[in-house]
Design brief:
about 180 residues; mainly beta; ten-stranded antiparallel beta sheet; two-stranded antiparallel ribbon; about 30% strand; globular
Length: about 180
């Protein structure tokens, strides 16, 4: 079960609120899913800010975090997908089913619950190369700066490194399968 929550935070951002509307006039819906995912209705709040709200026209990436059920082996920082039994599991590039990344695990309040970041800036990594694009790896939940080359592997772009520990999440719904 997926529950959207109002937990929106980015300790690196100061000043203006960096939340933008999830559904907007230029919103393009995700069309690459094999299974439907009902996220229900929700309200996302960005906490408090000073001013009249005019600063909400910020153009930085939106931050959207949801709470969801997960398998016990999922860890903070893992790239995850939604399985057919409606829980998130560690993603890998071995098949189209396991390669449909929906986000990264930001926090695990319990063994079977995870907060996922679906878009925005994630500071959960180490050893990233700033400026490099990152892809889903063959190892469960991991990412790499080298696109997969094995036959049958799925190429999934997940974002671009901003610093050695920070990834700008840019999930793609376009998949290429190596022949």
């Amino acid at each position: 079960m997926v529950r959207a929550i109002g937990k929106v935070s980015n300790p690196k951002v100061t000043g203006k609120c960096c939340l933008s509307t999830v559904v907007s006039a230029n919103h393009v819906p995700y069309t690459g899913a094999v299974n439907d995912l009902d996220m229900g209705s929700y309200t996302v709040t960005a906490g408090s800010f000073i001013g009249d709200g005019s600063q909400l026209e910020d153009t930085r990436p939106s931050i959207l975090i949801i709470e969801t059920d997960c398998t016990i082996d999922v860890e903070v920082g893992d790239a995850v997908y939604v399985s057919s039994d409606d829980v998130v599991k560690r993603a890998n590039n071995s098949s189209i089913d396991t390669a449909q990344v929906v986000g990264f695990v930001l926090e695990k309040p319990t063994a079977s619950t995870a907060y996922l970041i679906l878009s925005g800036v994630v500071s959960l990594f180490s050893g990233l190369t700033p400026g490099k694009k990152y892809f889903l790896d063959e190892f469960n939940g991991q990412i790499t700066d080298i696109p997969p080359s094995d036959s049958g592997s799925v190429i999934v772009h997940v974002g671009q490194a901003i610093t050695s520990s920070t990834l700008l999440v840019g999930l793609s719904n376009v998949y290429t399968i190596r022949s």
